[in-house]
Automatic annotation (TrEMBL):
GO molecular function annotations of the record: carboxypeptidase activity
Domain PA: 145-209
Upper taxonomic lineage: Bacteria, Pseudomonadati, Bacteroidota, Cytophagia, Cytophagales
InterPro entries: PA_dom_sf (IPR046450), PA_domain (IPR003137), Peptidase_M28 (IPR007484), Peptidase_M28B (IPR039373), TFR-like_dimer_dom (IPR007365), TFR-like_dimer_dom_sf (IPR036757)
Family in the record: Belongs to the peptidase M28 family. M28B subfamily.
UniProt name for this protein: Glutamate carboxypeptidase
Entry keywords, A to Z: Carboxypeptidase, Hydrolase, Protease
Amino acid sequence: MKNTFFLPLLLGLGTSLQAQQYIGFQQQSVSVQQQSEKRFLDGVDYGRFKTHLTRLTAVPHVAGSAANEKVKDYLIQTMEAAGWSTEVYPYDVYMSKEPGHSAVEIVTPIRKPLNQKEFILEEDPYSDHPDLWKGWNAYSGSGDVTAEVVYANYGTKADFEKLKELGIDVKGKVVLARYGGNFRGYKAKFAEENGAAGLLIYTDPKDSGYAKGLVYPEGIHYNESAIQRGSLLTENFTGDPLTPFEPALPRDGKIKVPRLDPSETALHTIPVTPIPYGAAREIMELMQGIQAVPSSWQGGLPFPYRLEGGKNLKIRVMVDQKRDFVRVHNVIGTLKGSERPDEWIILGCHYDAWGHGATDPNSGTAMLLSLSETLGKLTDKPKRSILIGHWDAEEHGVIGSTEWVEQMRDELKANAVAYINLDAAVSGRNFGAASSPTLKQLIIDSSKEVQFPDSAKSVFEVWAGQKKEPSIGNLGGGSDHIAFYMHVGIPSVSGGTGGPTLYHTNYDNMHFYEKFVDPTFKMGGAVEQLIGLMTLRLANAEVIPYDVPRYAEDLNMHFEQAVKGVKEFHPEFNGFAKTRTALNYLKASSDNYSKNLDNKLDSGLESNILNDINAKLLELEKSFIDPKGMYFGSWYRSLYASTDPYSGYASWMLPGIMYEIENKNTDRLTEWDERYSAAINELNLKVSELNRILEHN
């Protein structure tokens, strides 16, 4: 079914206002772009999303499996049929391909094996698929331990510090921690650093379970058998654990990449496995320790939580999980630009899943396949090249995309305009986005052009609600934008819709999707329209449509927060003086750039001038890429943003300073003032050069 949406700006607005909404377009090009966008919106076939999602999620397809190979083949077939050229990039990654063998049981005071797999449900025809595995954590250590148990809340750095404060020793014990608060790999890291013998992780019903509402299959929350799977990989870099900074190219290929020995890595050695809260309840109701947990540690199970199980309660945790080299494949589709083929707009989503993967990730994959078909049908081809990356092994540690970025580092530095990440991008009806500064306005403007399904409002109006503008977040960890943004310095966006999720469980399938996530299957088409408009504007604007003044605006806000953070432990701190001066200069030059550009777009610019401007715009974000990188990991080279190295998911803005704040360290504050002011001054010089070009041509 096709669904035609509207372009509000086509109706009753003057040429000047129209041009303002189309950043980077010369005035005479606006009407051409509007017509192209209308053809694109009219061409979106809403039925294709469901068709693709059904095919992609028919069977479980973990990275490295034969089923995932078939998904790869479907991606290639679909994109080539839509007129895209495709290339496969193989890598040999060191990882856990399968769960291996595991067991969790109560040994004393009773002997009882505990459940490690979701129930088969009569209502859910996918839940009995023979290729669904029990719960597992990739990159677990192998071992067989029997020990007393300690409850560690969410297993965060602060939680383990609190246990020490309370006199609880986890050495030689099995730690029981609930999901949430940080990346699961850090739960394992902190448990092992504190001497734990093993780790069990469960989703507490207070966080997703009966304490929240009806559980699956009646409702959207975890039932007592649901298990969150996931990787534990926590090196101080992202990607394949044996090839930091270098692509994990095939070992039988012509180029030989040096690899670390596994003994040289920080891979976990203790056995770790996830369990459902039904199994956690059976352990916790036998705990007889004398200390109750702090009130904030109490979860949703129907009894008071205790810190220790006592000497009479012994738990066995056994994991035998093999790690080896596994061949994984990225699929890159390219729609070559008609005028600027060497400037790339890159969109991406991974395709490997822990099970069927209906929401995570393949709602994003299905949308991208439909988008490739719609863009392929357009007679007016984009001026810049559009690339769509289908990444492999993301679930094991954001590996496929990282290896491609490391392989293509030089080409990306020279050619990449933007990266738009669409992991699980159609997972409900609530639109949201996180973005680098220069792309925020593009998202907002595009959202005004798409009607929200089953509504008379635009996506923008629903997204913003009662506010003047919607909130756009900062990019953190956990998905495929990391290497693009934080290692190479490419302006990036991560966006889409969210909603109900049975995250990383065997129930994330088409039955759950159709019943709870989007029964009408209209959101796929709406997200495709919005992402397609962003893509076409990036691809067709004469001048790359970055919102350059947003750098100074956002940086001022982040530095205000940073100063507050430092003053919490260093009250006499006077701020980052050199950086403050640099920001004042940047604000003036970037505001001037915006005015100069508007004037020149109204009168027109010659082709050679446009080439010069665009080449310099591509360099702006690279101002924040520092070869020295962060003290917590030199692979993370962006001074602007990184993942939180203590939680793995959260976004750290100004990560160099945030690391000092987290550790309450004042020794390097002057150094960071120097490094940040140098980066901002470099950015200011580039913006000033753009002003010089615009003012003299």
